[in-house]
Design goal:
The protein is of the alpha+beta class and 297 residues long. Helices cover 22% and strands 22% of the residues. The chain folds into 2 domains: 30 residues, no CATH class; 251 residues, HIV Type 1 Reverse Transcriptase, Chain A, domain 1, CATH 3.10.10. Strand 13 and strand 14 form a beta hairpin. The chain is globular. It holds the Pfam family RVT_1.
């Protein structure tokens, strides 16, 4: 304690988080070391460990057809839209070639020869990697909007009253698990320096993509909505009153994902929580509150 530090004339170096203790012939330096949390393993998570195939390291190819296909309905008289590729930095060109190869290998994109073509740009993600984005703004102007009614956030959270155990499942490349209707594939085309491609799976950036994916997830989870599941696009929140109940609820949802061949990203999922952050709110046994991290002062 403090008496011991005074007795030994110790020096506290706050900036380095060190304590220097003078001894007879040398100085003992005590450092504060942050212990890295143990890496989570699928095999160690109750219930989850029985559904390893739902959490692959990556998507290896096209998912089977789902109950819903992504369709693009154009306004009457819409003509094919073509834009010249944007100028990219050398580092972005390298990333472009890499991501095009990955998407091609998985069957997510294929060569295109039809007169549609949006430009490509890159957005830097939080961890420093780059996400390839297609600038579909011009195509979106020509698309008839899907007025699918999204649920009110407060209505969703009303269902959580009395819950105390939570798990959050994030689907891996959720959009890419939904196929584009065959006749609409050419409309998704994009142009790059390395070729002209079109998407066989639903790409990011199209105006109706969130509504279509939400429709799919609501259809699949309809029997469980407002009972122990909340769905918002590609996020699934499972909630229960106790651990015994939660074990059964998790099993039901994972069996559903397994049956429908929908896959989740383990690193973005959280299980067996006594509170959860979801859609900008924190939920626990005391109720639902705005996530302090989302509040600016």
């Amino acid at each position: 304690g403090m008496d011991w530090l005074i007795l030994h004339d110790a020096i506290i170096v706050c900036g380095k988080k060190e304590v220097h203790v003078p001894l007879k012939k040398r100085t003992l330096v005590v450092k504060v070391v942050k212990k890295e949390p143990a890496e989570r393993r699928l095999e160690d998570v109750p219930v989850i460990c029985k559904f390893l195939d739902v959490f692959p390291e990556d998507l290896s190819g096209l998912s089977p057809p789902q109950q819903v296909e992504f369709e693009i309905e154009l306004v009457p008289g819409a003509a094919p839209m073509v834009r010249a590729p944007y100028r990219l930095a050398p580092s972005e060109m390298k990333e472009l070639a890499k991501q095009l190869q990955e998407l091609s290998d998985k069957g997510f994109i294929r060569p295109s020869s039809l007169p549609w073509g949006a430009p490509v740009l890159f957005v830097k993600k939080k961890e420093g990697s780059f996400r390839m984005c297609i600038d579909y703004r011009e195509l979106n102007k020509l698309t008839i909007k899907n007025h699918y009614l999204f649920p009110r956030i407060d209505d969703l959270f009303d269902q959580l009253q009395g819950s105390s155990v939570y798990s959050k499942i994030d689907l891996r490349f959720g959009y890419h698990q939904l196929r584009v209707r065959e006749k609409d594939i050419p409309i998704t085309a994009f142009r790059t320096r390395y070729g002209h491609y079109e998407f066989q799976v639903m790409p990011f950036g199209l105006t109706n993509a969130p509504a279509v994916f939400m429709d799919l997830m609501n259809r699949l989870c309809r029997s469980f909505l407002d009972k122990f599941v909340i769905v918002f696009i590609d996020d699934i929140l499972t909630y229960s009153k106790n651990k015994e109940e939660h074990e059964e609820h998790l099993r039901i949802i994972l069996e559903l994902l397994q049956k429908e061949k929908l896959y989740a990203k383990f690193s973005k999922c959280e299980f067996w929580l006594d509170f959860v952050k979801f859609l900008g709110y924190v939920t626990n046994t005391q109720g639902v509150h705005v996530d302090p991290a989302k509040v600016e002062f």
